[in-house]
Amino acid sequence: MPSLREALQQTHQILEASGIPDARLEAEVMVMNVMRMPRQDIFAQQELAVSSQQQETLSQVIDRRKQREPLAYILGYKEFYGVNLLVTPDVLIPRPETETLVEHALFMSLMGMEVAHLVIADVGTGTGAIALNLAIHLPAARIYATDSSEKALMVANYNIRRHNVADRVTLCHGDLMEPLPEPVDLIVANLPYIPTARIPTLQPEIQWEPAAALDGGEQGMDQITRLIAQASERLNPQGSILLEMDPEQVPLAEELARQYFPEAETGVERDLAGLDRVLTISRGVAEEA
Ligand SMILES: C[S@@+](CC[C@H](N)C(=O)[O-])C[C@H]1O[C@@H](n2cnc3c(N)ncnc32)[C@H](O)[C@@H]1O
Question: Domain Release factor glutamine methyltransferase N-terminal, which positions (predicted)?
Fold first, then answer.
């Protein structure tokens, strides 16, 4: 039977030879999951024997990953903003860029709004990543989370229950903000924003994710444009909108925001890589000034 050290080395080598990015890190995550051990233990117990059943499970995981299936789909979870979320191929795997959106939404909510009665919409919720983190950190807020995919909403439903926020997150099936029963104070959205023609040129892992979660139409702006147009009717007078997008799309989205919200102030937040990632549109700020 191989030791943990050997299993780790072999996994690393196979992944590297298959061209998997971050092969060492992924090897560690795979071994941790198969052995059901925390990270520190796989290093502390390097001589531990790996059973034949564990070897078999590990080789199944490696085989799937060699096909460039995303690790999150193989393991069935992804950590986002410190929270483990169920992910399946019916949902986009939450990205670190989106943590910028969550962080800024929390900042705006806590600094500038009447937090006690805050009503929020997370449009295109997928796993529920944004909605459930806002619910965790804003315990008095009510949140609507919409998606046009019923399968995605089933995953979100599992996640909001598992994290005990189902009493404050209402899942709604439908197009963008159409299913919302009332106007809201804050709209957050990470809608699909990749231009259709760019998708096949992106890394193989992305091709496993649902097209409806990625494809933003010819310029990548179809859903964002529709949301800005819809939002003017559904955002309360002091409300704000936070939209994640590609840095190249920011100027166009800002132009649209000025068209639909001439009274509002706009701003841009950068992600951890320093790229313009989140457009903010704040109705209240400009009116108060
Ligand atoms: C980029 S994914 C984001 C998922 C999640 N919010 C996140 O940040 O990880 C976009 C989501 O929007 C949903 N979606 C796409 N078009 C939509 C529409 N017209 N109305 C509602 N949801 C939509 C997709 O099904 C998908 O779950």
Answer: 6-76
Report pTM. 0.94
65-110 pLDDT tens trace:
999 999 999 999 999 999 999 999 999 999 999 999 999 999 998 8
42 vs 116, residue with greater confidence = 42
* Amino acid 115: pLDDT: 58
Q: Please, which residues have CB within 8 angstroms of residue 261's CB and are 6 or more apart in sequence?
A: 228, 232, 281, 283
Domain boundaries, the chain: 4-67, 89-288
Domain 89-288 = CATH 3.40.50.2300: no
Task: Give the C-alpha separation, 256 to 228, whole Å.
Answer: 7
Q: State the amino acid at position 271 in one-letter form.
A: D
What residues are paired with 171 via a beta bridge?
145
Determine the residue of 149, 169, 244, 249 to mutate for testing ligand 1's pocket, defined as the one with the most ligand atoms within 8 A of the Cβ atom: 149
Nearest CA to ligand 1 atom 17: 148
